[in-house]
Amino acid sequence: MKIQEKNGLKYLEFISFPMPGLTQAIFSRHGGFSRKPWASLNLGGTVGDDPENVNKNLDKLLNAVGFTQEQLVQVRQIHSSNVIVADRPVDAQQQGDAIITNKRGLLLLMRFADCVPVLLIDPVKKVIGIAHAGWQGTVKEVSFHAARAMVDKFESNPADIFAGIGPSIGPDHYYIGDEVIEKAKRVFPEHINKILIKDSDGVKLDLWEANAISLKKAGLVKIEQAGICTGCNTDDWYSHRAENGKTGRFAAVIGMK
Questions:
Q1: Burial of 222 by CB count in 10 Å (0-12 exposed, 13-18 middle, 19+ buried)?
Q2: Domain 2-169+216-256 belongs to what topology?
Q3: pLDDT tens across 81-99, in order?
Q4: Is the whole model's pTM more than 0.90, yes or no?
């Protein structure tokens, strides 16, 4: 990934995404209006922050990428594998954890604070997507379902799809309990030694590797990983776990001009 800066906002772009007219960004927490503990570019409207500041943050983010609120596609994220196929702007009333579209002029936006942002593009069919994968979305294989929806709805060839796995809680920080361990074993039986890491303090889950496995299961071969742990880098990213639940949400966006 590469770091970009505009209007005082810092964001990351995947370097492997080759599509003219594509907008893609994962915004850090810097450059916004929110005060602690949400400082400063908080996009989460349900975490206790002043709604006016959240809206100002959104407007500043949109200005940086050249879109407006009238072009936004948002959903109510519920830690599911539901994929929304968008052909027009959508407010946050529909429930889902992945969005795909082949329509230009829409900006897909999701919010994160440890969960995995997954961005998808098919430069051949001109299809884009975004997914939100916490542990629940990961064991429900939301990344797989988002990629397969691009194939089923828009006839994408999996070999043409590029995927990017953004900043999230890393395997060095993500200790899990018995419930998650058992679900991971059921979903990833052949890869369990890759995604579960045991040490003297317990068992950790590698969300990055698990989502990469799901994407490969969908037939993808072009996968870029940021390798940035939100829990290790709370100066730049919101982390629900590292900040004990009192924090904001950063945004990931993707759209076609």
A1: middle
A2: CNF1/YfiH-like putative cysteine hydrolases (3.60.140)
A3: 999 999 999 887 899 999 9
A4: yes
